[in-house]
Amino acid sequence: QVQLVESGGGLVHPGGSLRLSCAASGSIFSINGMGWFRQAPGKEREFVSAINWRIGSTYYADSVKGRFTISRDNSKNTVYLQMNSLKPEDTAVYYCAALNQYYSGRYYYTNPGMYDYWGRGTQVTVSS
Questions:
Q1: What is the torsion angle, in degrees rounded to the nearest 10, for the CA atoms of residue 28, residue 62, residue 107 and residue 126?
Q2: CA distance 85 to 88
Q3: Is the CB of residue 84 less than 8 Å from the CB of residue 126?
Q4: How far is CA 41 from the centre of its chain?
Q5: Which of 13, 32, 61, 108 has the most CB atoms in a 10 Å sphere around its CB?
Q6: CA distance 6 to 119
Q7: Residues near 117 by Cβ (< 8 Å), separated by ≥ 6?
Q8: HEC string for the chain
Q9: What's the CA gap between 24 and 2, in Å, rounded?
Q10: What confidence score (pLDDT) does residue 28 get?
Q11: For the stretch 25-64, what's the b/e string if a residue is b when 16 or more beta carbons lie within 10 angstroms of its beta carbon?
Q12: Nearest residue to 91 via CA among 8, 12, 5
C-alpha cells in the first residue's frame, strides 16, 4: 500500500503562483510514476501533469504547458507541482496519484484509470 498526502493549496490572485507537494509513504519501492489531476465543481477529473519515476519523463496537459512544472525528490519520496501564471480556470481540487506498473507512453500517464493510489486532494482557488 502507498499513502499519498498533498499540501500547498490555497487562495491566490490571478497571475500568482503556488507549489503543491505530494509526499508518498508505505510501499514506495513499488511506485513507477506519479501524476497530478484536478477536478472542478461539476466537471470530471482531468489530467494535469505526470512524471515517470525512473527516468524522469514528464507529461503535461495542453492547458498548463509552459505554466506548470512537475518535479520529484526521490530522497524525500515527494513530487511537486509548481504552478505559475495561475488563472481562475485553474481553480479545482488537485489530487496526487501513483502508478504501480511501469509504463512507457503518454496515454498511460494521462489516464486516471491507470493509477493505483490517490491522495485526498488539496484545494486551489484562483480569484481576485
A1: 40
A2: 10
A3: no
A4: 18
A5: 108
A6: 6
A7: 1, 2, 3, 4, 97, 98, 100
A8: CEEEEEECCEEECCCCCEEEEEEEEECHHHCCEEEEEEECCCCCCEEEEEEECCCCCEEECCCCCCCEEEEEEHHHCEEEEEECCCCHHHCEEEEEEEECCCCCCHHHHHCHHHCCEECCCEEEEECC
A9: 7
A10: 87
A11: eeeeeebbbbbbbbeeeeeebebbbbbbbeeeeebbbeeb
A12: 12
| CA 124 – CA 67 distance, rounded (Å) | 15
Output the pLDDT for position 102.
Answer: 87
Q: Give the list of residues 6+ apart from residue 125 with CB closer than 8 angstroms, or none.
A: 10, 11, 12, 91
Cell of 25: 509513504
Please, which pLDDT band fits residue 125 given cuts at 50, 70 and 90?
Answer: very high
Q: What is the pLDDT of residues 48-101, one digit of tens each?
A: 999 998 888 999 999 999 999 999 998 999 999 999 999 999 999 999 999 998
Hey, what's the cell of 85?
501564471
